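Inverse folding, one chain.
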């Protein structure tokens, strides 16, 4: 409640407050409404820019389908549990108890579709390989670097999440696009974040 009150007060003072989140738009709506934000935001780590309350899509950087399928296979080979983000929903091969809890926590529907690679027939916003433990992540990141060779933006969040996006889909790039819309210089911007997927904000 304290954070909501502070952000609402800043927003009402005329400073533009925007969300830059790894969450889907649908999963961020609760917070947008609580704060009373009507500015566009950055969602799915920069893969999508949308108006806050209307949900109009302003810009998208989608993950190529073949790269997404390859990332799914990589995760599954190493005991991971892939999740695909698209159409304001999360898709998995089989819904686990952890998926159900995650869906409730993020306020996003999670659908089990069987063979996730076979089901995926459109470019998603992003893909997450939920890895079973921290030790499984470095080998996966090394393989990612060999296979995708800088073609994708790959980052880590919530410790065991390895996230895959279009190379242009970063929070920093999303922030730059919105700042350019409003003619706001980087010297007039303050950012805050607490994980690896926020580093591009500070770099920008």
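Residues assigned per position:
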């Amino acid at each position: 409640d304290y954070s909501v009150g502070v952000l609402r007060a800043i927003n009402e003072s005329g400073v533009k407050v925007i969300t830059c989140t790894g969450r889907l738009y649908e999963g961020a709506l609760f917070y947008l409404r609580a704060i009373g934000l009507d500015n566009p935001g950055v969602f799915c780590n920069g893969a999508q820019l949308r108006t806050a309350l209307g949900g109009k899509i302003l810009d998208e950087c989608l993950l190529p389908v073949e790269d997404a399928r390859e990332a799914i296979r990589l995760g599954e080979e190493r005991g991971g549990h892939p999740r695909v983000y698209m159409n304001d929903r999360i898709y998995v091969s089989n819904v686990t108890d952890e998926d159900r809890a995650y869906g409730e926590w993020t306020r996003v529907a999670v659908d089990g579709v069987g063979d996730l690679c076979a089901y995926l027939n459109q470019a998603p916003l992003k893909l997450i390989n939920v890895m079973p433990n921290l030790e499984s992540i470095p080998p996966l990141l090394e393989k990612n670097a060999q296979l995708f060779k800088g073609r994708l933006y790959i980052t880590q969040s919530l410790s065991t999440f390895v996230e895959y996006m279009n190379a242009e889909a970063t929070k920093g790039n999303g922030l730059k696009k919105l700042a350019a819309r409003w003619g706001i210089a980087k010297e007039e911007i303050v950012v805050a974040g607490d994980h690896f997927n926020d580093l591009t904000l500070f770099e920008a």
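The first strand starts at residue 41 and ends at 43. The chain is about 40% helix and 20% strand.
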